[in-house]
Amino acid sequence: MVDPSAANRRLLLRGADTLTPRGWTRLRATFTSDDPTEELAAAWGIKEQLSACCMPEPDRLWTTYASGGRRSKS
User: Fold this and answer.
1) What number of CA atoms fall less than 13 Å from residue 5's CA on the CB side?
2) 39 with 5: CB under 8 angstroms?
3) In the predicted structure, residue 6 carries a pLDDT above the cut 90
4) Does any domain span residue 73?
5) Which residues span the domain enclosing 34?
6) More confident residue, 15 or 56
7) pLDDT range class, residue 28, cuts 50, 70, 90
8) How far apart are CA 44 and CA 41, in angstroms?
9) CA 31 – CA 44 distance, rounded (Å)
10) Closest CA to 13 of 55, 52, 43, 54
11) Does this model's pTM top 0.70?
12) Is residue 27 part of a domain?
């Protein structure tokens, strides 16, 4: 027997920012039907939060670029 969540593994590994509306619908359906304890949804949410924490801050990156890589005197 195939674990239903394993069948949706690729969907669960995709980033929230790359999901299409159809992907969001499938993800919600997976959580509703295959995750009675909501552990899978919680783990997916934590994965997304960690991913967001690892992304560079756009403002900081722009400031570095605009200053030519020079640090401001503080």
Assistant:
1) 16
2) no
3) no
4) no
5) 4-66
6) 15
7) very high
8) 5
9) 10
10) 43
11) no
12) yes
Judge whether residue 24 has pLDDT over 70: yes
In a domain, residue 71? The reply is: no
Instruction: Specify the number of domains making up the chain.
Output: 1
Residue 18 belongs to a domain: yes
d(CA 58, CA 46): 22
Using alpha carbons only, give the angle 43, 48, 49 rounded to the nearest 5 degrees: 95
Contact assessment for residue 16 and residue 49, using Cβ atoms and an 8 Å cutoff: no
CB atoms within 10 A of CB 48: 13
Provide the total of helices (H) and of strands (E) in the chain, helices listed first: 5, 0
Could you tell me the pLDDT band of residue 52, with boundaries at 50, 70 and 90?
Answer: confident
